[in-house]
Structures are given as C-alpha cells and as structure tokens.
Amino acid sequence: MGFLWSLIIGGIIGWLAGLVMGRDIPGGVIGNIIAGFIGAWLGSLILGNWGPVIGDFYFIPALIGAVVLIFIVSLLLRSFGRSRS
C-alpha cells in the first residue's frame, strides 16, 4: 500500500509542478508520476530534507525539484524542436 501511496503523491507533485510552470508534462499521468519522483530526488539533492512529509516525499523540496525538472525538460524539447526545422 505504501508504494501505491507514493505513486499517487508523486503524480500529484508532478501535476502541481505542471500547473505552476503552465506547461503540460509529456506522457500524461505516467509523465506526472515520473516528474514527481525525479523532482523529489532532485529537490532533496538541491534543498535537503525539510518541510512536511507526505507519502515518503518531503513535499516542498519535491515540488521545487519537479518545477526545475519541468523547466529543463521544456527547454530541451523546445531546442530539439528548433534544430529539426
């Protein structure tokens, strides 16, 4: 049950990060979950472990990490789109 809860919270974190950035995450629900998990990892590397813990994620660093991840991915996708034209 803990793994399922982590998937749900990871998806919510990815979805919230997409709302903050105003960009859709490629891959839909799976992309949101992946962005939430990678964002949580990235956020804890950059900011450490602090803030409220929800579903084994430190929520604030995870959200900030997911926003940074979506920003980087959107820049990469935009640059690859221009290079093919």
Automatic annotation (TrEMBL):
Residue ranges of the TM segments: 6-22, 29-51, 57-77
UniProt topology in membrane: Multi-pass membrane protein
Cellular compartment(s): Cell membrane
Coiled-coil region(s): none
Keywords carried by this UniProt record: Cell membrane, Membrane, Transmembrane, Transmembrane helix
Superkingdom, natural source: Bacteria
Keyword Cell membrane: yes
Transmembrane listed as a keyword: yes
Subcellular location, principal: membrane
Matching PANTHER family: UPF0410 PROTEIN YMGE
Similarity comment: Belongs to the UPF0410 family.
Protein name: Membrane protein YeaQ/YmgE (Transglycosylase-associated protein family)
Naturally occurring in which organism (per UniProt): Paenibacillus shirakamiensis
